[in-house]
Design a protein that fits this description.
There is one protein chain. The chain is mainly α and about 170 residues long. Helix content is about 80%, strand content about 0%. The chain is built from 7 helices and no strands. The longest helix is centred in the middle third of the chain and has 36 residues. The N and C termini lie far apart (about 60 Å). The model has no long low-confidence stretch (mean pLDDT about 85).
Amino acid sequence: MIATSPTSGLQRVLENERPRLLRFLAARGAGDDAEDVLQDLWHKLAGAEARPVADPVSYLFRAAENVLRDRQRAAISRGRRQHEWQDLAAGDSAPEGERVLIARERLREAEATLLALGPRVDQVFRRYRLEGHGQAAIARDMGISLSSVEKDLQKAYRAIAELKGKFDAE
């Protein structure tokens, strides 16, 4: 763990306690990731503001355990996310052409739903959600109040939410 910047007192303690920290992390299930956890801890210490610590060894053991927990939580989240994506990909049994037709049909229904709310609501929704304009800019450009823009967006969101409920029920 050689750094180009001067090492802090905690980094020196980490260097001295490295073997004990590795054993500590291995006992808590870090396995091959123990070195990576210490490297992450080293970088956190390098980026942190130097301040006095009453018991630096205890502090480092607690910090190492926290880094390990963060990495384990991230791995669990990553695994869940990957599993969900795989389920979505595997669960979609409709042929490609059929999915495209369904998506186009749903888009037409959404456009019709927005138009049914009135041209102003449709225009406000499109400018805000699709073109990325701010609400204040939309209000100014259309000559309406900010409150009107917010209410138009609420109408559009309610209608789209109802339509999504309908699509989900199909």
